[in-house]
Amino acid sequence: MDAIRNMDKTTRSNLITYGMVIVAFAVMQGLSSIGAIGSSTKGLLIPICAYISLGISLNLVVGISGELSLGHAGFMSVGAFTGVVVSSLLSGVVANGALRFLLASLAAGGAAALAGVLVGVPVMRLQGDYLAIVTLAFGEIIKNLLNNLWLGWDSEGLHVSMRNANDLSLEAGGKILINGPQGATGIERLSTFTFGFLLIIFTLIVVLNLVNSRSGRAIMAVRDNRIAAESVGISTTKYRLMAFVVSAALAGMAGALYAMNYSSIVPKKFDFNTSINILVFVVLGGMGNIRGGIISATLLTVLPEKLRFLGDLRMLIYAVVLIMVMLVSNNRALQATLQSVVERVRRRRDDDDLVLDAEKGGDA
Amino acid sequence: MGLLTNVINGVSLGSVYAIIALGYTMVYGIAKMLNFAHGDIIMVGGYLCFCAVQYLGLPPLVGVVLACAGCTCLGIVIERLAYKPLREAPSLAVLITAIGVSYFLQNSALLIWKSDPKVFPSVVKLPTLSFFGGQLNVSPLSIVTVLTCIAVMVGLTLFTQRTKMGKAMRACSEDKGAAQLMGIDVNATISMVFAIGSGLAAIAGVLLCSAYPTLMPTTGSLPGIKAFTAAVFGGIGSIPGAMLGGILLGIIEIFAKAYIGTELADAIVFGVLIVVLLVRPAGLLGTFVPEKV
Amino acid sequence: MARNEGTYKAQSAAAGEGQARAGVPKRASQATKMVPLPTDSLIPERDQGQTILECRHLGIDFGGLHAVEDFNFTVGKTEIAGLIGPNGAGKTTVFNLLTKVYQPTRGAIILDGIDTANMTTPQVAQAGIARTFQNIRLFDSLTVEENVRIGLHNQVKCGMWSGIFRLPRHWLAEKEFHDRALELLDVFGMADQAGAVAGSLPYGAQRRLEIVRALATAPKLLLLDEPAAGMNPSETAELMENIRKIRDDFQIAIMLIEHDMDLVMGVCEGIAVLNFGKIIAKGTPEQIQANPQVIEAYLGKQETDDAALRGKGRRYQ
User: What share of chain C has pLDDT > 90, as a percent?
Assistant: First the structure.
């Protein structure tokens, strides 16, 4: 009986998460249709969707699989550039924008998954902080390689170079798709808020369903106790890799959504700091807590934009808030102090109520 | 001669990485945390020295001492305020706090010194040394850097092996609980490690800014990450490992820049790190401790 | 096959000594008849020709130290075997070798006729060895039922895609996981705790859950590493019953490491005594209790007191 109640609890929690996303989408759609949202907020909607998806996918690695990944932006960039290139190559073939977006996203997910396998196979031999460093290193390598990648297209097909644009030797009508450090330009802006919403839902389905399945339990078993998991016949490498690759694929799709929201995109955007920002969403939202991650990704994307008037102070405040949140949420002494303050306030209020009651009693 | 020049430049750059990596490795050894704010201490050190020399007109050596003292205090304050309350917290919380501290330092520097790059005055004012009739030129800064690095290494080794504080430090990295039972003040020891690491970071900052004389609030980030890589490369937690890792990393970076291309140098540095970790999962001089069943 | 338990007196087998003495605890009167093998090992008569585990000259070195050396031991298909010895004798190391947490330096491990050389821990687990740990290793943040479901991982198959896209296979598998998990928990009367978080269970329940989880892998050989550690005498007595019950219900072999001599002498049929990585004695509980080398290993040379080894309720650490 308890097991059924417990399953219900998970299902209920998941339904709340889906509901929250759907309601938020409906409200934002409603507000924007009556013109109640400014253009600056509107411009944030798609990046927020991308960051939420990135947060959810990173949660699969950090929260569910228990590995620290510091290179999530690397997979995002693989997806971003793949998506842009594929949508650009398909522009003459597939007329329908939505279909082109879908195909580009799938390609982006596939490419990022491939990158995930390439990175994951060696990385999964390592553990703990060493694994974290290697993901960081891979993130930097991916950024560095994309910074040195030129990709062009003409009637003869694709041209690739690691030197410069001239080295592509494109014919007259050829198009440069990726231009080294300048990245991709002239991107057709296919991303819409609805696509962003659908991507979040898709990401949620994949992650939540995976977690509550045989494979997901194996992933969590490896997280909780690697040796015990092996002792019951679970291959730790397989399931750590599964979480890593699924997460990479989802990050790639989010990257494609993000990139196709802008007319140009540079590799430098997807650096260590971006990886860290996504990690902060996950940690502030609570490790393994998908809903918390969604909320923190939204707040941490919106607030910095809304606080632009603070200028240089803005990031300083962000830093202080980040440190304070970590201290308060992880230090027992601080928590106890806070709790006693809250209790004192509550008791005083209770006392006031008593006094009020007494007065009332006196009146009666 | 090109080869020799590259080796000298590599060792010189590597010495800077090694000095920074020592800070990372000592902090990791004792507090088991990835102190991502360490790179930004380098930047603060650079700015302190810059201010002392440029605005106060002090001699460079005094500037270095001031920077060192300032960063030492900064290191202790950061440890007390941000890291000490998290001694029992999950490592990810400490990591995020360290990143918060890193942002805090960068953005404080942005407020104080603005974002425009400052041209750092060289602290070493000696003529360039020429050998083989001008075929091989060695900048005096390189020599000073390498000598500093050797001095730091020897000093630290003597400190950890011979002094009471140094032994306390090693005891704490082995087992904090046992060290405490033996009467070692664990908190004081950890503070001291942060102090030493930060002081070294200041020295590294001055040397780095002298070699690449632009100073910005983000100056410390990339060298920080690379030095961190160096620490892992050599075996994080190991002092000789940090030294070896730093110098090898410097040489690899300079050679990659010279023979493959400036743009791909970072990818190669990180690639080498990955290969090394795959062959030796605990770094060159680190020891892999399997989980006890 | 006929079970011969409880009907035979202890008889001299390999070494030709160690007949039941006066003062041997009552439980020994239920001793199984053990028969010698061509090697120097014994197995219960009912398991003749059916060994589940055979270790041949097994050994491992740590640095220069021979942590386990020339370990020869055979376990019958339904035997309850014991591995005892002073602390640091290498008992847990033997379990770690059997489950490939460590790869042996020398020798062979034959599980049900298959050489496990070059197998990894998960492969050995799939081949039929399950274990519990001296320091409990549960999946602390997951529920009791989820712990058992993870134990059932290789018994019920369902791929990643079925799980992600909730294909019919997933729902079938989940139903089977649930039913079988509750069935297994019922063996220890833990079905009503299925929804509790494993890490929050009391110590004794955690130990029981670890055994259930191991059983979920449908093992041929169950290794129990100090199952009675931290238990009081009544819990230990219950555990003894449970160990026999598991063997009877599941018809598997059990090998246990234990310091509680009441438990070891009470349930084990064949016992090996390990000291400094080497087997110093093998035999039935009676033979072991009478063996002067064993007494010496436990108590030291001067104070030879074989009565102490047979003492009731005492633990030799």
Answer: 69
Among the partner-chain residues B92, B110, B273, the one whose CB lies closest to the CB of A312 is B110
pLDDT in tens, C232-247: 899 899 999 999 999 9
In a domain, A327, yes or no: no
Nearest-angstrom CA–CA distance, A3 and A6: 5
Shortest CB distance from A231 goes to which of C125, C143, C164? C125
Token pair belonging to A354: 């008593």
Report the gap between the CA of B186 and the closest CA in chain A (Å).
18
- Establish if A112 belongs to a structural domain: yes
Token pair of C53 as six digits: 């585990």
CB within 8 Å: A232 and C142 = no
Q: Is the pTM of this model over 0.80?
A: yes
3-state secondary structure of C172: helix
**Three-class SS string for chain A?**
CHHHHHHHHHHHHHHHHHHHHHHHHHHHHHHHHCCCCCHHHHHHHHHHHHHHHHHHHHHHHHHHCCCCCCCHHHHHHHHHHHHHHHHHHHCCCCCCHHHHHHHHHHHHHHHHHHHHHHHHHHHCCCCHHHHHHHHHHHHHHHHHHHHCCEEEEECCEEEEECCCCHHHCCCCCCEEEEEHHHCECCCCCCCCHHHHHHHHHHHHHHHHHHHCCHHHHHHHHHHHCHHHHHHCCCCHHHHHHHHHHHHHHHHHHHHHHHHCCCCCECHHHCCHHHHHHHHHHHHHHCCCCHHHHHHHHHHHHHHHHHCHHHCCHHHHHHHHHHHHHHHHHHCHHHHHHHHHHHHHHHHHHHHHHHHHHHHHHHHC
Give chain C positions within 8 Å (CB) of A242.
160
> How many angstroms separate the CA atoms of C16 and C10, rounded?
11
Q: Mutation target for A interface from B273, B284, B288: give the one with most A CBs within 10 A.
A: B273
Asked if residue A251 belongs to a domain, the reply is yes
Q: What is the mean pLDDT of chain B?
A: 90
**CATH number for the domain that contains residue A31:** 1.10.3470
Position A254 in a domain: yes
Architecture category of domain B2-114+140-279 in CATH: Orthogonal Bundle (1.10)
Do A185 and A178 contact (CB within 8 A), yes or no? no
**Residue range of the domain that includes A214:** 2-301
Instruction: Answer whether A6 sits within 8 Å of C143, measured CB to CB.
Output: yes
Q: Indicate yes or no: CB of A323 within 8 angstroms of CB of B100.
A: yes
List b or e across B165-200, with b for residues whose CB sees 16 or more CB atoms inside 10 angstroms: ebbbbebbbeebeebeeeebebeebbbbbbbbbbbb
What superfamily does domain C1-128+219-317 belong to in CATH?
Answer: P-loop containing nucleotide triphosphate hydrolases (3.40.50.300)
User: Which residues of A, range 132-171, sit inside 8 Å of B by Cβ?
Assistant: 132-134, 136-138, 140-141, 144-145, 147-148, 162
* Residue B292, min C-alpha distance to chain C (Å): 10
Instruction: Quote the radius of gyration of chain B (alpha carbons, Å).
Output: 19
Do the strands C278-283 and C270-275 form a parallel or antiparallel pair, or are they unpaired?
A: antiparallel
pLDDT tens track for C173-190: 999 999 999 999 998 899
* Cα radius of gyration (chain C): 20
Domains: count for chain A: 1
Quickly list H helices, C28-142.
Answer: 91-98, 121-127
pLDDT in tens, A263-276: 999 999 999 999 99
Domain ranges of chain C: 1-128+219-317, 139-216
3-state SS assignment for residue C95: helix
pLDDT digits (tens, 9 = 90+) for C55-92: 999 999 998 889 999 999 999 999 999 999 998 899 99
Whether A356 has a pLDDT exceeding 70, the answer reads no
What are the residue ranges spanned by the domains of chain B? 2-114+140-279
CA distance A93 to C35: 80
